[in-house]
């Protein structure tokens, strides 16, 4: 079974954080891995120090989520429960990957204000944004699809040119 098939099988039943460590490092493979729900994608060769840092970051996020208060963040029809890592929109539960949840949580905490890709990368992915990194954009496309549109047809997540992304929920 390939890594992509294995990831799909894991995501079918679990939201456990997943880092893909693979020799397949071209853009199409990275995008496929991230779209299917990988929390990070590390092409080989990589240094053990970098891999350890990425693992620590994901474990830190998972530990922070376990110790977070049970209070929901409510923005219009969107409700985010950080402690349970659960999101609902208009009473409908959303099936988000761990990375998608992190991004939605950051956007919900800053609802109505643009959040830069650099901030999103640092806060949600636990790493600085690199020069040609498109992972935030890939995850945002998936989140937009899962959240659906507002009643006027606009996306819940707006792209603010040269500023970042902004959550707008009715």
Descriptive account of the structure:
The protein is of the alpha+beta class. The chain has one domain (3-167): Winged helix-like DNA-binding domain superfamily/Winged helix DNA-binding domain (Arc Repressor Mutant, subunit A, Orthogonal Bundle), CATH 1.10.10. 44% of the residues lie in helices and 18% in strands. The protein is built from six helices and eight strands, in the order αβαβαββββαααββ. The protein has helices at 3-13, 27-35, 48-67, 98-109, 117-125, 135-147, and strands at 19-22, 40-43, 73-75, 78-81, 86-89, 92-94, 157-160, 164-167. Strands 3-4-5-6 form a four-stranded antiparallel beta sheet, covered by helices on one side. Strands 1-2 form a two-stranded parallel sheet. A two-stranded antiparallel sheet has the order 7-8. Helix 2 links the parallel strand 1 (19-22) and strand 2 (40-43). Helix 4 (98-109) packs across helix 5 and helix 4 packs across helix 6 (135-147). The mean pLDDT is 88.
Quote the CATH topology: Arc Repressor Mutant, subunit A
For the biggest sheet, the summary is: 4 strands, antiparallel
User: What are the segments in which pLDDT stays under 50 over at least 5 consecutive residues?
Assistant: none
Strand order of the largest sheet: 3-4-5-6
Shape: globular
